[in-house]
Design a protein that fits this description.
Chain lengths: ~110, ~220
């Protein structure tokens, strides 16, 4: 989870988790459960979810700019299917898109 | 009644003698909370009333013209453009903007294929350091809900109609970064100075709801 070892790479398909935590979080409801593509590794940022509740936000979390095709967000989207939306999502809100090959394990557990 | 004479030719709702009060409505819960917190912090010495005023004045002093100068430089200076795409905050500082304490800044470059439009659906994140205080519509629930759902309909209401071949790309600013749109450089601007170019870059074009202005012939 450190900035040096991002869990996802540019171009990888990811799904936003459908968690419903209480308290502060930065993942808009309309992208939860939706599949997009990592467009950019934004960098590591302090965790806003713990910062908002008196914590120190550590450890920092990797953040990703994820790009969605609009029809993946809104099945009845009225514009061209090529329209897109980008949003920055913290790493712990993402998982590999279902059906895609899993990234190789970094190190086998002893 | 207050003894106010109602027979002098204007409706009471537009009472010319009424003091101008921000918002107009009753004091909200959030306003009470803000005042209580501010007063408590001042009382406990966390910061002074003067510092609050200075922070407000510094925020008020920022103007869309600051962002427009950055865009003009982005259009004309390849080194600046490279830096802006790599590290927007550093580029803004190079452009003479004090970014102390400001969130990271991302330049979203429009191209003939991609048109960006910025929103913050969760609250009202806005690149205040380079654009100043956001307009009321940017913070409205209607804009925030609709521009992610039907961006082309919203753009049309701003007078912006884009061909279907252009990817309308909504950038939802939810986290630690702020987005500044670099509109397409208008045609016929080759000979213009930085100042003349900056004058074509409106606030709305840097949010992405409009294009940059065309130079007057």
């Amino acid at each position: 989870m450190s900035a040096g070892h991002p869990a996802f790479q540019v171009g990888q398909r990811v799904r936003v988790l459908t968690r419903q935590p209480t308290g502060h979080f930065r993942t808009p409801g309309y992208v939860r459960g939706r599949v997009g593509v990592v467009q950019h590794l934004t960098g590591a940022y302090l965790n806003a979810e713990t910062l908002a509740h008196g914590g120190d936000g550590r450890p920092p979390l990797m953040m990703y700019r994820v790009q969605f095709q609009q029809p993946a967000l809104w099945p009845d989207y009225a514009g061209p299917a090529t329209d897109t939306l980008v949003v920055d999502i913290y790493e712990h809100w993402l998982e590999p898109a279902p059906g895609d090959p899993q990234p190789p394990q970094q190190e086998p557990r002893p | 009644m207050s003894g106010h004479d109602h027979d002098h030719g204007h409706p009471h709702d537009a009472d010319a003698h009424a003091p101008i009060e921000e918002g107009g409505g009753p004091v909200t819960w959030d306003e009470v909370l803000e005042a209580a917190l501010r007063e408590l912090c001042i009382e406990k010495g966390v910061f002074s009333g003067t510092q609050v005023m200075q922070a407000l004045e510094s925020m008020d002093a920022r103007r869309p013209e600051d962002g427009a100068r950055l865009v003009a430089r982005f259009w004309t200076d390849p080194d600046f453009r490279r830096l802006a795409l790599e590290n927007g905050k550093a580029a803004a500082e190079t452009g003479g903007i004090d970014m102390t304490g400001a969130p990271d800044l991302v330049f979203l470059e429009n191209t003939p294929q991609v048109h960006h439009v910025v929103v913050c659906t969760l609250c009202s994140c806005y690149p205040k350091a380079v654009l100043g205080i956001p307009p009321a519509w940017y913070k409205s629930k209607a804009y925030r809900a609709r521009v992610v759902r039907e961006p082309r309909a919203v753009l049309k209401e701003f007078g912006t109609v884009l061909p279907k071949s252009v990817d309308v790309r909504v950038a939802d600013s939810t986290a630690e970064l702020r987005f500044l749109v670099v509109p397409l450089r208008p045609a016929g601007t080759e000979g213009l100075s930085l100042e003349q170019l900056a004058a074509l870059v409106t606030r709305d074009s840097m949010v992405g709801v409009t294009q940059a202005l065309s130079p007057s012939p």
